[in-house]
Amino acid sequence: MKSSKSLTVLLALALALVLLTGSIAVPILCRPFYYAHIGPLELEASTGLSQAEIRTAFGEMLDYCQGRSEEFSTGVLKWSESGKSHFTDVRFLFQLNFQVLACALGLLAALLLISSRGRQRPQPLLGRGPAFWAGAGLGIVFLAVGALAALDFDRAFVVFHTIFFPGRDNWLFDPAQDQIIYILPQEYFRNCAVLILALSAAGCAGLVIFDFIKKPGRNTVHSKLQKT
User: Fold this and answer.
1) What is the three-class DSSP state of 109?
2) 118 — pLDDT class (breaks 50, 70, 90)
3) Three-state SS at 110
4) How would DSSP label each residue in 28-64?
5) Which value, to the nearest 10 degrees, does the dihedral of the CA atoms of residues 68, 73, 89, 138 take?
6) Which of 54, 120, 133, 138 has the fewest CB atoms within 10 Å, i.e. the most exposed one?
């Protein structure tokens, strides 16, 4: 069986993409995570809406962003064309994340199939396998991002929108025109970021631990001894 550095790099990339996009998908798909914020953030008291009205407004907005509905609506809350255009931008990013996740899963499955059938095996890089490099590489990125966000989340929030919505200012809602902002406080987005970072950190740690348990260098050494 031939060992391949290219296979190692591709596996590491696929693993990192699956972990990254999968972590991002969790708060997008897990509506109970938002519902759990309604009480602690006192959204009923601050908006004068019932919990059912808040859930409906959030659900209709999210249905549009997830691509489950072609019609944009926010329950009993008012919205403007400018506000809708922002959620159309969000819809594109959500769909992009889902597509990258699907492609990364497909790539990972194909690479694992190639490896399992004995055609090629990943060649350790500096004594470590693809799981280590995926976990370590993505972990360093998230540590840097998490540190910056922890220092000044408000600034990080603005930078995020500047990067992912270049040249757009429709994310700066006028509450009188786009009332959905009343039920989407910044604390909720901060907690979404914390959840994504926590899931990613746990995944990165799991990949690194898996690599150390597997000890990819042992097979290489063993095969060399057999040849001699």
Assistant:
1) helix
2) low
3) helix
4) HH-HHHHHHHHTTTTHHHHH---HHHHHHHHHHHHHH
5) -60
6) 120
